[in-house]
Design a protein that fits this description.
The complex is a heterodimer of chains A (156) and B (754). With 156 residues, chain A is an alpha+beta fold. Helix content of chain A is 38%, strand content 16%. Chain A has a five-stranded mixed β-sheet with strand order 2-1-5-3-4, sandwiched between helices. In chain A, strand 3 (49-52) and strand 4 form a beta hairpin. Chain A starts with a strand and ends with a helix. Chain B has three domains: 8-214, Aldehyde Oxidoreductase, domain 4; 225-296 and 351-440, Aldehyde Oxidoreductase, domain 4 (2-Layer Sandwich); 556-753, Aldehyde Oxidoreductase, domain 4 (2-Layer Sandwich). In chain B, the strands form ten sheets. Chain B has a seven-stranded mixed β-sheet with strand order 15-16-13-23-20-21-22, with helices on both faces. The chains are: A alpha+beta (156), B alpha+beta (754).
Chain lengths: 156, 754
């Protein structure tokens, strides 16, 4: 066990954990941040995605110690039901989920995409989210939600 | 997670507002007391208070054994209740899947929840409304037929000043009346004699009300079964052999001595698990623990071909006769031309995104379980059987898991957690790893279909002989789940048929036989691959075979595939209407298949198919492109028509249809469980690919709403016709007939050469 200092959603957090523990379990079990989810533990599905210094990372594969001194953002860091981020609000508007288990990855993936490219084409969205699996088949709604955010930012 | 649990008795004693651990409408719903005492089978359905409660502020709390599986069905159920009671939607709170609080309405499955459970809740609500009007009649001194209700306020027609709210009539008190409830589970008829509202007056049912569970799912605030926790909880992981049942011949405990913290090994029968203080320690221990497994008691088949040979050559132990009309043999021997083909459907996975997870706290002869089961009472009873304690001593609290498509009717992980909690005497949370789920998912069984058909000199179909051969579900209601089996519990029977349907019975032919045959496993009660119900069980394969055959005959007769179908689609007006409406939306023009040959490497095609699943009618038109040099199939668009009677929530239904279509394309093009004698080969998403963003088609939806009808299922019927429509489109594009799923490039290339 070791003390690991993390900066999560803008706050400094110190946890006691085996430094090899994947960040996912530290976030979920030590910090009670349940946005990132365990889907495969293999980096194949995207359900565990977080942003590390603004880039998407599969937290199931990333040792917690490797995230020290970096800015980690989880789904909770974007917004809440009371104060949703524009992307979260757009996902609600489009009713862009069924079970919602994969949605952490979809929303975080959308955040990283829109930060880099505020007006993605459908092809851009598909390419950018191709490494995220949704088994319920809500892809079309996810695309519409991301387009909704992009269109709103055109109007703004 | 709020872990305080409130017993039914506490509820009964209380008169004020209570906080319960969980509801679909937030983590602190206001709930009042209900019910008459817990029976072995959940709450007494003949007591109105078992179904719903009205608090002083007019809030309606509904107690339901039906659970949200991610399909939005609990929102639809709440709409039905709000409509029938004449209260606004946001006053209805759903308390769902707590075995100490709800009536056992059977498993949530087979797209029957609105059709059956919805009608049960509608009738209970109608009975409640009737009673509330009776109370109001006395209070307002006006006959019931002079009363009207607006958002939970009863007033006298023509004198709206004379009014009283539901909350003031009953708030804080029980109804204390009995209602009629006959039958069990899905088939229970609740207050059937109470008149329900005329659908013409519906204001809430039929509206696209946003789902109550979704906002929290986009922020991380939603509590899934994977998020359940209690103080002092430990983490468990299962350790299982590759795929077949083997016994642990030896366990090298020293192999995990370097894992930090205390790690316990749980061994009972052939069950092996590890329990540790942290999740990561449990995962490492499960991976590191050296277990020598005995030779499996059951050999895996050498591969899919051996399974198909077995299905073909093994005598069935049960034949389900769906149609038997005319004299088939005579008609076939008189036929001018005969068609005969065999179709193959592979084992496929449910493929839950999140491996199943449960938390169990077993103390002495009592157990509390938090889990994502589709059947709260089924899992409760199964755990009680395994722990050898009375069902009443098991309190199961439903927490939604990842979308399950049938998989969590077999809630294995809850048993694993209970077994490990009993062994260590502490609450244990168990989540399966990805490879556990891929390997031990009770899969949708392989199927082999044979079709023979004959036409007369005029090209009219006069004979139709359809046989579906499939394995039963090794995991079904009466059979023990995985951990139970591992500690020695024996199956009660062979398992249910893989769905009850046949192929081609939607058409009327003069001489017609449609059979579904149940083929026993090599050794009954043991399984090379576990099997269970996978979304619209068996119907994808059956409709693939029958609709491909219809297409083949139409093409051979140079008939347009839509017009050809309509000649025989005479048994039900709704099915021909949905087929025609779908074709029209897709811009269908009459011509025979195949399309005129393309000159380039890529060929475009269109295909059509139609199906009836549990009286929901669906039709699909697929537009595809085949690369003739590589065999790659791209599905460009699916138009899907859907008639499920009365539509409760149109956008919720569209969400289900879009999802079903994409899952169907995935299953048609990509999905096949692979195995050989050494075990299953695909244990992750790279080796069992499913559809991804760059492969999805556009989806256009045609809904036919029939407010005069009862609501029918919308959760799975739309998955059924899609595979056949794609196969027929491949034929249209290339002249190659696909007979085996999935339509991999290699199979397409071989069909092109055939």
């Amino acid at each position: 066990m070791a003390r690991i200092s993390l900066k999560v959603n803008g706050k400094s957090r110190v946890v006691d954990a085996d430094p090899n523990t994947p960040l996912l379990y530290v976030l979920r079990d030590n910090l009670a941040l349940h946005g990132p989810r365990f889907g495969c533990g293999l980096g194949q599905c995207g359900a565990c995605t977080v942003l590390v210094d603004g880039s998407t990372m599969r937290s199931c594969m990333l040792p917690a110690s490797a995230a020290e001194n970096k800015n980690v953002t989880t789904l909770e860091g974007l917004g809440s039901v009371a104060h949703p981020h524009a992307i979260q609000a757009a996902f609600v508007e489009e009713q862009a989920a069924q079970c919602g288990y994969c949605m952490n990855g979809m929303v975080m993936g959308a955040k990283a995409l829109l930060d880099k490219n505020p007006h993605p084409t459908v092809a851009d969205i598909k390419r950018s989210l191709n490494s995220y699996i949704c088994r319920c088949g809500t892809h079309l709604r996810v695309i519409r939600a991301i387009q909704r955010v992009a269109n709103a930012s055109v109007k703004a | 997670m709020e872990t305080k649990s409130i017993s039914r008795r506490d509820l009964l004693k209380s008169t004020g507002v209570l906080i319960v651990g969980f509801s679909f409408f937030g983590s602190a719903a206001r709930v009042l007391a209900q019910g008459e005492g817990l029976s072995v089978d959940g709450m007494d359905p003949t007591v109105l208070d078992s179904w719903l409660a009205i608090s002083k502020d007019g809030t309606v709390t509904v107690f339901t054994g039906k659970v949200e599986l991610g399909t939005g069905v609990v929102t639809a159920l709440a709409q039905i209740v709000a409509e029938e009671l004449d209260v606004s939607f946001n006053k209805v709170y759903m308390d769902s899947g707590d075995t100490d609080k709800v009536v056992d309405q059977g498993v949530t499955a087979a797209a029957r929840t609105v059709e059956r459970g919805g009608v049960q809740l509608r009738q209970a609500s109608a009975a409640a409304r009737q009673e509330l009007l009776k109370l109001a009649s006395a209070r307002l001194d006006s006959p019931v037929d002079k009363l009207t209700v607006t958002d939970g306020v009863v007033s006298v027609v023509g004198n709206s000043a004379r009014k009283i709210a539901y909350g003031d009539l009953l708030g804080g008190k029980r109804f204390n009346i009995k209602i009629v409830a006959a039958g069990i589970g899905w088939d229970m008829k609740v207050a059937p004699e109470v008149p329900a509202k005329n659908s013409k007056d519906y204001k809430i049912v039929g509206k696209s009300i946003p789902r109550v569970d979704l906002p929290e799912k986009f922020t991380g605030e939603f509590v899934y079964s994977q998020d359940a926790s209690v103080p002092g909880m430990l983490h468990g992981r299962v350790v299982r052999p590759a795929t077949s049942i083997s016994a642990p011949a030896g366990i090298d405990e020293s192999s995990i001595q370097n894992i930090p913290g205390e790690v316990k090994i749980v061994r009972e029968g052939t069950f092996v698990g590890v329990v540790a203080e942290t999740e990561w320690a449990a995962i490492q221990a499960a991976r590191t623990l050296k277990v020598t497994w005995s030779e499996p008691t059951l050999k895996m088949p050498s591969g899919p071909d051996e399974v198909f040979d077995y299905l073909k050559n093994t005598k069935s132990f049960k034949d389900n006769v769906i149609v038997n009309r005319g004299n088939l043999d005579a008609a076939l021997s008189n036929a001018q031309k005969k068609y005969e083909a065999t179709y193959y459907w592979p084992f496929q996975l449910h493929g839950m995104m999140g491996p199943p997870c449960a938390l169990a706290d077993v103390r002495g002869d009592k157990a509390t379980i938090w889990t994502g089961t589709q059947g709260p009472f089924r899992t409760r009873d199964s755990i009680a059987r395994m722990l050898n304690i009375p069902p009443k001593n098991v309190h199961l609290l439903y927490r939604e898991g990842s979308g399950s498509y049938g998989r969590l009717e077999t809630d294995d992980v809850a048993e694993d957690a209970a077994l490990m909690s009993r062994a260590v005497g502490k609450p244990v949370r168990v989540q399966w790893m990805r490879e556990d789920e891929h390997a031990w998912d009770p899969k949708g069984p392989a199927q082999l279909q044979t079709v023979r058909a004959g036409v007369d000199a005029q090209g009219k179909v006069i004979a139709w002989d359809f046989m579906d051969r499939s394995f039963p579900w090794s995991e079904s209601d009466a059979n023990p789940m995985l951990a139970s089996s591992q500690i020695g519990m024996k199956p009660a029977g062979a398992g249910f048929l893989n769905g009850a349907g046949g192929g081609g019975q939607i058409y009327t032919f003069e001489n017609q036989k449609v059979l579904a045959a149940d083929i026993p496993w090599v050794q009954q009660g043991q399984w090379p691959l576990r099997t269970s119900n996978l979304r619209a069980p068996g119907d994808l394969g059956r409709v693939f075979a029958s609709e491909s055959t219809m297409d083949e005959i139409a093409a051979d007769q140079h008939a347009d595939p839509l017009q050809f179908r309509l000649r025989y689609l005479t048994s039900d007006k709704r099915i021909s209407e949905i087929l025609v409406a779908t074709a029209k939306k897709a811009g269908w023009t009459d011509r025979p298949s195949p399309a005129p040959a393309s000159t380039g490497t890529k060929a475009l095609g269109r295909g059509i198919a139609v199906a009836n699943r549990a009286n929901t009618m669906t039709a699909a038109v697929a537009e595809i492109e085949v690369d003739k040099t590589t065999g790659d199939v791209t599905v460009k668009k699916i138009t899907l028509g859907h008639d499920c009677g009365l539509i409760v929530n149109p956008d919720g239904l569209k969400n289900q249809i879009e999802g079903n279509v994409l899952q169907a394309v995935s299953r048609a093009l990509l999905e096949e469980v692979k195995f050989d004698k050494t075990g299953q080969k695909n244990l992750d998403w790279d080796s069992y690919p499913v559809i991804r963003f760059e492969q999805i088609p556009d989806v256009e939806i045609v809904l036919i709403d029939r407010p005069e009808m009862q609501p029918l299922g919308g959760g799975e019927p739309s998955i059924v016709p899609v595979t056949a429509a794609i196969a027929n489109a491949i034929f249209d594009a290339t002249g190659a007939r696909m007979r085996q799923v999935p339509f991999t490039p290699q199979r397409v290339l071989s069909a092109l050469k055939a």
